[in-house]
Amino acid sequence: MMTYGSSEVSELRFIHLQAEAELRDSQWMDVTLRFELAPGGELPEGIEELSALIICTHSGDIVQIVPQDEDRDCEYQFTELEKEQLRDYYTKTVRPRLSEYLI
What we know:
Layout: E1 2-3, E2 14-23, E3 28-37, E4 50-57, E5 62-69, E6 72-73, E7 76-77, H1 80-94, H2 98-101
């Protein structure tokens, strides 16, 4: 993870991912991924409850992946390797059964 405007980067590994999806409007769907950090991983300072918001089209195409703290936007962003982990989980596990994850 990295803070906007900072050159400091730390890579987190995510385990035990879980998803829920919600239709936002007639164009977008929000998929929230909750997870634990792999052993040895530490949340960035000031983050209490990290999750990922994946904004998708109704057909399931990913538009954006953003970190959230306690379900709100935060000043951090995921690295490309972190996004890759999240994208991989979404593509293999969530997207094929997207309707099952809708709340």
